[in-house]
Amino acid sequence: xxxxxxxxxxxxxxxxxxxxxxxxxxxxxxxxxxxxxxxxxxxxxxxxxxxxxxxxxxxxxxxxxxxxxxxxxxxxxxxxxxxxxxxxxxxxxxxxxxxxxxxxxxxxxxxxxxxxxxxxxxxxxxxxxxxxxxxxxxxxxxxxxxxxxxxxxxxxxxxxxxxxxxxxxxxxxxxxxxxxxxxxxxxxxxxxxxxxxxxxxxxxxxxxxxxxxxxxxxxxxxxxxxxxxxxxxxxxxxxxxxxxxxxxxxxxxxxxxxxxxxxxxxxxxxxxxxxxxxxxxxxxxxxxxxxxxxxxxxxxxxxxxxxxxxxxxxxxxxxxxxxxxxxxxxxxxxxxxxxxxxxxxxxxxxxxxxxxxxxxxxxxxxxxxxxxxxxxxxxxxxxxxxxxxxxxxxxxxxxxxxxxxxxxxxxxxxxxxxxxxxxxxxxxxxxxxxxxxxxxxxxxxxxxxxxxxxxxxxxxxxxxxxxxxxxxxxxxxxxxxxxxxxxxxxxxxxxxxxxxxxxxxxxxxxxxxxxxxxxxxxxxxxxxxxxxxxxxxxxxxxxxxxxxxxxxxxxxxxxxxxxxxxxxxxxxxxxxxxxxxxxxxxxxxxxxxxxxxxxxxxxxxxxxxxxxxxxxxxxxxxxxxxxxxxxxxxxxxxxxxxxxxxxxxxxxxxxxxxxxxxxxxxxxxxxxxxxxxxxxxxxxxxxxxxxxxxxxxxxxxxxxxxxxxxxxxxxxxxxxxxxxxxxxxxxxxxxxxxxxxxxxxxxxxxxxxxxxxxxxxxxxxxxxxxxxxxxxxxxxxxxxxxxxxxxxxxxxxxxxxxxxxxxxxxxxxxxx
Length: 816
Fold this sequence. Notes:
It is a single chain. This protein is of the alpha+beta class. The chain is globular. Helix 5 packs across helix 7 (about 265-275). It is built from 23 helices and 25 strands. It folds into three domains: about 35-180 and about 355-460, D-Maltodextrin-Binding Protein, domain 2, CATH 3.40.190; about 210-350, no CATH class; about 515-705 and about 775-780, Dipeptide-binding Protein, Domain 3 (Dipeptide-binding Protein, domain 3). The two termini are about 40 Å apart. About 30% of the residues lie in helices and about 15% in strands.
């Protein structure tokens, strides 16, 4: 499991709608089901009936290199192909050329893709090789063959130091990648890496002197670069807000979502949604007091936004990024790389000679490309499974000569690549035609390796969320992804003659959201004495966890109804590593007494369970050292380091609008009967929660995680990633530090055996539960709806999952 840096405006309920992607994370490739595989002699496509898909607004970044939003990425997905193939559970398909059959829910499916992947780890050399072997019959939509030169070109674009897209190939420790990106030897890199630290430590106000170990020019360059990277990060916040909160623009800044066009309007939205601007009477007021008359046409610039963040954090880029960032691109890390690559090549030791290539990226033949990586990381394969872009289109063929270290563009110059951002071309099932009047038009790719799509015309049409369901009914759109709210459910049911979610007008397909909701406890602030690891400290947290857990069904059902379910492990049910109810060692979270016996029986009513949970909690609190008065049935004193009352922060907008609010209220009522109290803090501004989390001062809180295709736990649960520690990912909000857990995390992190990893992660989950720092609460659902009147539903890919969307097998989808 990985986590994006928590953002100020991030919806704690993960209320983002499900992206209509081929699959999430790296599962965006096209494959075929055994039961519905296209024949080589496909029928003549219907030419005049387009399939229309309702989408949230596009940013027109349709390039495989620069697409940011999930909606733009889907344009890439439908027109391009990725090297890596994954199945409905997110598992890797290693032999995708011939195909592999994987079972899902008891049904065998055949998965194919454009490349095989062979992974070999050499323990002696501590290096891993990834060998991609391409399929023979893959062509781009213009008829040109996809081969190893296209793969090499694509890797080098992603690896270029000026590349500013979202694909993070540069984060994988490919042999020679660092040398190439910085154009320095290992020795020179080390020299300037140290220089970076020294200049940063000296501070921006440092007055240069000849006694410094760097030149005045290097110092000036350093701080110029730092500002540039900070501004880039602020721009990332703006882009994130435009992509995810455009629907709120009218309330936030008085601009309708459909009119959110200018850079100034977008910056204003970013400031407002991130807490850097308050809008009233047509005026946006920044924290510094500076005002912008939006109604009168005066909007902030990105420099204005940067200045506000600079002032808020006293010029400290690390402090800024640790709190505010919208993504995982660290300002200081980016500045470090840019400084070294800017100043390092000037060092006399290099004699003006550069680094001509990346030693770990090799073309073995026109069908084979080998990547060599230092060490082993189970997650690296997902990053290396890139979208392959055509060299002859995005690159310049006159500048490609693999044998002479020419890779389709000049080092550090991606202008030609970027110039084609709005006009994608690839080897996917559809060919991009145009983007016009907020509609993306496609035609079937007759050269598609898995058969020409049966539906010839396809459109992605921008549609506001309130219009998505009615659009399917009226016939303006055929497939879309409305927010799966109670109102949406009622609207869908009202259109179907049977009053159900699937009927005569609309077919509804629900899938689990790629994330889950939880209640967290800070082991550093919820403990007995000075040691968070003792049995007493764990008993204290388990007492609270037992109470939270017993009210989950009531609270989740009240808030979500059938749109969510209670989960028992701190991992999304969408993950292949998630324990299943059929597993012999599966347990209901926090359902055992102090002596290990079960708290509940199958015959108990809810009220009897609540009573049994309270009795068990009392025993846990006693074990923690609390003084209990048997006569009154109440606790009268807490042990040293503990308290009789704790605070839980629930970001419900000050109105209790949160799936765990009822749960917390019920726990508060129950604890008051035994002399303890739970203070419910429901701030109208979620910054209250994030400020406390950033400071490590929170006790208990409600939030949600978003998960990636790989369940790696390093970022969130590893001991060195506790908030505030040097070099931390700042994601271990639980202050969980456990040596055994660390060892298991790293063992799974360095293994490519999925069965072993799953068993190891189960052991990790058990340790996390034992610490009682995270109570898993709910797994909510998203939905995709289809027109039952216009789409041939039996041609839609079966068993849609979080990692396998409707666009998989799209070449088989037909209209009525």
